[in-house]
Each structure stands twice: as C-alpha cells, then as structure tokens.
Design a protein that fits this description.
With 311 residues, the chain is mainly α. The protein has 11 helices and 2 strands; from the N terminus they run αααααβααααααβ. α2 packs antiparallel against α5.
C-alpha cells in the first residue's frame, strides 16, 4: 500500500501546485534574508556561541537570551528553507520533462543554498559576528552576501521558467549585457550590506561625522568600502536604463522603475536617519524585491520564446 501511494504521489502534483511551491520558496528565502539582517543589526550573531549547528551546545536552547532567540530563529528559518528547496527540487523533477530549464535553475538554487549554510557556519565558527571588525570578516561576508543574491536569483529563474513553460533560445548579446548589468547590481547589493555593517559597527553621531569617517586616513577598510556603493549604483543604473528602454511601457518595466525610485528614496532616508535597524530591514526588502524584478525583466530579454514545450 505504501509503495502504491509513493507511486501515485507524483501524478497528483499539478503545474499549479509546483508553481505555488516555487513562489512560497522564493518568498520564504526573502524572509530568511531579512531576518539575517536583523541578526546583524542587533548584534545577535553570537547568540548561539561559536556552536554550529547546535546552539550553545544544545539542540533547542534552554532559558535563552534575546540574542539567542534571534539567532536561533534565523537558523530554524534557514532549516525551513532547506526543506522547501528539496521539496521543490523533487516536485520539479517529478512533473517536468528533461528539457525544462527550471530543472537547472532549481539545481543551482540547491547548490547555492548549501553554500549559504557552509558560509554561515564559517562566520559563526571563525567568530566573524557581532563586533568583529577584521578584514577576514569583510571578505567572507562579501562572499556570503554575493551567494545570497545569487541564491535569490536562482529561485527567481526557477519561478520564471515554471510560469513560462515554453522552449527558449538565448540572445547572446543580451546575455552579456544582462550579465554585466546584473553583476553591477549585485555589487550594489553587497556594498550596500557592507555599508550597513559599517553603520552598525561604527555608528556616527551625525551625517557630517559619517562623511568624515569615510574619508579619514585612519578609517578601517569597512568604512572606506562605503564609497563603492554609490559608484556601483551608477553603473547599475546605466544598465537598468538600457533594460527599461527595451521594455518600456510594460507593466513589469514600470514596476522595476518604481522599485528603483523607491530604493533611491530609502537610501537617502537611511543616510539622513543614520541607519536605524528598521530602516535597514526596509531598505533590504526593497533591494531584494528590486533584484527579483530586475532579474525577471532581464530573463525576458535574454530568453526569447520559440515554441511551447509539450509534456
């Protein structure tokens, strides 16, 4: 009886079920990223000590402090992301044909998710949390943040290909232009997160004091890197201008443009308010939504439709 149920289970999955699971997995991982920002902004990265995957040597911490609750919640949410991703991987392979590009996208997401876990564990085990200001933390955190954006990108492409079950060609010219623009946008995201870390570790009493920190000769590398953020943002804006020009008038292009304007406004507000935690989280949410929408719009330009796939 059990074997019969196992055999019939894939046939009960419909394309609609798989799409819903894919959207849920993407949304859940965005929440994990946002909670990770709360962990960083509140200095809760050492809430479980240097233990991983255990928390202070326990499976479930007893009488936890606030920082332990925040860090442990993040770990539990990350565990949920693993289960959702594996479920989506199995569902896509059970219901799609061999040429469906969503298969490659979800495999990439699965690999990147395990990379994410390894990088997160290294940050904890090496003590690159809370008040650590070392160059090693900046380097490892940059890799971690890049992997996070690539992970969200892989989930986005998984949903994109599931929502558009057609056969595609690849526009190589647009592929290269999109790759350059998306890398620039990724640098904006990473540099922005590093800037937020700098705001947390080196809080300024005023906007003027923050600028003095950035350009002082004895400033740590983390503060000097803050200038990379506006420069990379300029390059990414050039790419977005090209992309929006090609897609002008479409609802998605208008949505991307609106998110871009919203992000710029949040960036100025973040600067003027001296980066409180709630503003950092809101700014990051806008950045994640913008990244997902931008990647979707880029995919439309890079993968022109040729014909419908047949089951």
């Amino acid at each position: 009886m059990a074997s019969t149920a196992l055999h019939l289970a894939p046939s009960r999955l419909t394309a609609t079920h798989v799409k819903r699971l894919a959207w849920l997995t993407l949304a859940w991982n965005i929440l994990v990223v946002l909670w990770g920002a709360i962990v960083r902004a509140t200095g809760s990265g050492a809430g479980c000590g240097n233990h991983w995957p255990l928390c202070n040597g326990e499976v479930i911490p007893h009488t936890p402090r606030i920082d332990t609750i925040i860090e442990f919640t993040h770990r539990m949410m990350s565990g949920g992301a693993v289960f959702l991703t594996l479920a989506l991987l199995l569902a896509i392979f059970a219901t799609s044909e061999r040429l469906q590009p969503a298969r490659k996208a979800i495999v990439a997401a699965t690999v990147l998710l395990f990379n994410e876990a390894i990088l997160g564990a290294l940050l904890v085990k090496l003590g690159y949390v809370t008040g650590n200001r070392s160059v090693g933390r900046v380097v490892l955190l940059s890799i971690h943040l890049s992997n996070t954006l690539l992970l969200l990108g892989a989930y986005t492409l998984t949903v994109y290909f599931l929502e558009r079950p057609w056969r595609f060609t690849i526009s190589r010219r647009n592929l290269w232009l999109s790759a350059i623009g998306l890398v620039s946008t990724l640098i904006v995201g990473v540099s922005g997160s590093l800037a937020a870390l700098g705001d947390t570790l080196f809080p300024a009493s005023s906007l003027r004091a923050a600028f003095v920190q950035d350009f002082a000769s004895n400033s740590p590398m983390l503060l000097r890197l803050r200038s990379v953020h506006p420069l990379s943002a300029f390059l990414a804006t050039v790419f977005v201008t090209w992309l929006l020009k090609r897609s002008w008038g479409s609802p998605l292009a208008n949505f991307v443009l609106g998110l871009l304007a919203f992000q710029i406004a949040l960036g100025f507000a973040d600067l003027l308010l001296l980066a409180p935690t709630w503003m950092q989280v809101l700014h990051l949410l806008g950045a994640d939504l913008y990244w997902v929408a931008l990647l979707w719009l880029s995919a439309q330009q890079t993968f022109p439709i040729t014909k419908e796939l047949h089951a």
